[in-house]
Amino acid sequence: QVQLVESGGGLVQAGDSLRLSCAVSARTVSSYCMGWFRPPPGKEREFVAAINWGGGTYFADSVKGRFTISRDSAKNTVYLQMNSLRPEDTAVYYCASRSVKYYSRDLGHYDYWGQGTQVTVSS
What we know:
mainly beta; 7-stranded mixed β-sheet; 11 strands; globular
């Protein structure tokens, strides 16, 4: 059973940094596309970042230049490094895994999801 467990969320001030972790079991993170999503207030989850099997990384325009995504194959963990945080980055962040190796921004293309971790950025 594939399981994804996020951690690292918290309450920070605008301009601060946070690193989210997604520990994955029963699946090798380097073999599949892994992504991060967050829901804007009152809306469906939106794409934040993804890393494909080859290590290619992709970002939403709203976070490009501030967030990075990486993985540690030895720990089977995916990370989302968030710098220069803004109040509008406040959300529950979800880690997700596709069952194929290629990148997608469509949340419907992801098969497994974590429970989410709350990030709150105060102004």
